[in-house]
Amino acid sequence: MSTVTTGTGSPKRRLGDLVFANLTRAAGLTILIALAGVGIFLTVEGIPAFGAGPDDLKGHSNLLTYVAPLVFGTLLAAVIALLIAVPLALGVALSISHYAPRRIAAGVGYLVDLLAAVPSVVYGLWGIAVLGPKLVPVYKWLASHFDWIPFFAGPASNTGRTIFTASIVLALMVLPIVTAITREIFAQTPRLNEEAALALGATRWEMIRLAVLPYGRSGIVSAAMLGLGRALGETMAVAMVLSASGVVTWNLISATNPSTIAANIALTFADATGTARNALIASGLVLFLITFVVNFSARAIVSRYEPGSK
């Protein structure tokens, strides 16, 4: 009971309830203040960059032409990572929730969750030392046989440090988030819906296609958008793996690659001074807004389908 009744009949809240309610309000207010503080800082420090010249913008004439290639590289790497991670995450989630025996499913679930605890630096080292060199023969084969496709036009990178390699690393980092959310959504599918599909003669896959996937559609979308937000903001792994030159290109396997906003800031902020530093902060503001919009959209989708929502 959260209230007690006094002799006059009016409810009186317990002291513990009042303390807990005020603490939770303070915690929520602290998050809002911190978020607003970050936005104000980025805005104030980024405004001087609008008057920056080519010397401070790496040869670009204005801030827009400076940030646009970084936005392109950020979105390209994140979208490719999502295209790789989401189907794999759905397969793993369905295997855990509907196919694998309970003991095996629990173990696989723990292993997938542990992927989220691996530092991004470790992913970056793995991408440089293992994944990149292993993909060099694949990139050369793609450049030799599919050079008519803009994505594989070549020439292939000799180190494997390409935007595609960085996207694969990002996909592995996004995988635990998407898997964890979709796994819980699939596990909450009404049992009666599944049994009704099976009783009508549906196979296991038909039951999943007709009962599980439609039920979890909103959860899949929200998980993918949350994973997209994670991929957009990743810094160290991309900075370590990607051999970036800041260009706009659809070629995924060459040594000339677009950079991302986060990686560009991480690699150049320490040496930047004056207006050049303001330009980096302004690009950070752009990334902040993109990430905020993605996460806000994901939260809106989740809230729309919460129990009791209309």
From TrEMBL:
Gene Ontology annotations of biological process type: phosphate ion transport
Record localization: Cell membrane
CDD domains according to UniProt: TM_PBP2
Keyword vocabulary terms for this entry: Cell membrane, Membrane, Phosphate transport, Transmembrane, Transmembrane helix, Transport
Any one annotated GO CC term: plasma membrane
Keyword Lipid metabolism set for record: no
Family as reported in the entry's similarity comment: Belongs to the binding-protein-dependent transport system permease family. CysTW subfamily.
Domain of life of the organism encoding this protein: Bacteria
Name of the protein: Phosphate transport system permease protein
Topology of this chain in the membrane: Multi-pass membrane protein
Coiled-coil residue windows: none
Transmembrane region(s): 20-43, 63-96, 108-131, 163-182, 279-302
Sample GO molecular function, one term: phosphate transmembrane transporter activity
Organism: Nocardioides marmoriginsengisoli
